[in-house]
Structure formats: C-alpha cells, structure tokens
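Sat 14:20. Reprocessing the chain from the morning session after the first attempt stalled halfway. Input below, unchanged.
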Amino acid sequence: MSNKMKRFLVISCLVLPGAVQADSIADSLSRIEAETLILKAQEKQIQVKAQIADREAEIASKQLASGRASRSATLTDPTVKGVEGIGRNLVASLLLENGSSIDVKAGETLANGMRIVSIRSNEVIAETQGRRRVRLAPAAPQAPAGATAYPAYPTAMVALPPLAPMTPAKGAAR
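Finished this time. Tokens:
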C-alpha cells in the first residue's frame, strides 16, 4: 500500500465516526425540540383550563351575590307584565294566576302573602312568607283577541268585478 492510501484510510477512519455522531446529535436535537413544543402546548392548555375554571367560579359568585333570589319563580307566582316610572318611583304591573292584573310598588304585599322587595327596570324581586326571595318571571306575550294560527290578511282589498253569466257553447246539447 502506498503512503497516500494509508493516509486516506487513517483520515477516513477519523472523520467517519464524527459524521455519524453529527447525525445522531441532529436527530436528538430535533426530538428534544419537538418534545419541548409539545410540553409548551400542554402548559398553554393547562393555563387555559385554569382561566376557564376561574371565570366559571367568578360567574357563579356574581350570580349568588346579585341574584339573591334563592329559588326560581313557580307557575303560581305572579308574572311581570311591565315596569313603569322614573328613577326610584317605579311601578310594576303584575299578571296574577287568575288572569287579573295589578299595579304594585316596592314594599307592598300581595294577596298570596308575597311582599314586593324591589322593582327595577329589568327585574321585580318578591319575598315569600317563608322569607325566600324570588325573581318574578316576565309574562308571556298574549295573542291579540281574535288571533288565529293563520297570518292576518289585509281587509281593505279591491273587489274583483263580478263574473259574466255563463252562456252555453254553440251546438251544445240542452
């Protein structure tokens, strides 16, 4: 073997393991980078879940604080037909179970023993005899008298001219 050939073999033996090692290092770095991205995504997901849980707890506490109504309205409770007035002088029109309507102010007591605690433009709070607060439900819109399931057609329509009398066709048998 020549000197050149020996040098080539020695150099190639020294360089070849370095090239193989460089490939394995690049592979491991790529794998580590991919795992890092996955871990960051999982961390972000955990943070979002924690934020959702915080918001849900915040909403629940606000509902407890503002909605002191401890139970929902029942079918026998009056319903709110409307609220009128200016400022603190608000009057609520309530629709009772028997179909009659009454106007009440805050502090008044109804025939069923409920006391009107507060009236606001968007809610009426009443207190039962058992000291439970109830937010009265809005009244369902009632259909006007004479309403049917069919849409209303205009009543002021132009009349059609009367039909011409029918004459038998020529040659028709009588």
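The mean pLDDT is 78.
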